[in-house]
Amino acid sequence: MSTTTAPRPPRALPPLMQLSEAAAERLRGLYAKGQEGKLLRVAVSTKGCSGMAYDLTWADAPGPGDEVVTDKGVTVLVDRKATLFLIGTTMDYEVKAMSAGFTFTNPNEKGRCGCGESFHV
């Protein structure tokens, strides 16, 4: 006797990248002041004691293979080489007593260096 099962629907992938409200608000401000017409590109570069670091640069337009991510009305670019490392990542903007900047919560990270500058997957 043969049994057949219906094929499972494909699992939904998490969004490539999401922005927190704080990150979206900060980017809106940057885009409005001085960076009008530019887009933030998020990449991953080889550096630091853990091997990889987030790299943020300004771009005039999407490059070949860039993923265009729009969340909360704000658009950022994800470098094609960083795509697999960033799936499911949330970009935030944090203000601390002595510093302020963008931070990343990346479910693909397996560890970070002691200073938090670099990570590995």
TrEMBL record:
Top-level taxon of the source organism: Bacteria
A Pfam family of this chain: Fe-S_biosyn
An annotated Gene Ontology molecular function: 2 iron, 2 sulfur cluster binding
Limits of the Core domain: 17-117
Coiled-coil stretches: none
GO (cellular component) term, any one: cytoplasm
GO annotation, biological process: iron-sulfur cluster assembly
Family indicated by similarity: Belongs to the HesB/IscA family.
Name of the featured protein: Iron-sulfur cluster assembly accessory protein
UniProt organism field: Pseudoroseomonas cervicalis ATCC 49957
Species classification: Bacteria, Pseudomonadati, Pseudomonadota, Alphaproteobacteria, Acetobacterales
Gene expressing this chain: iscA
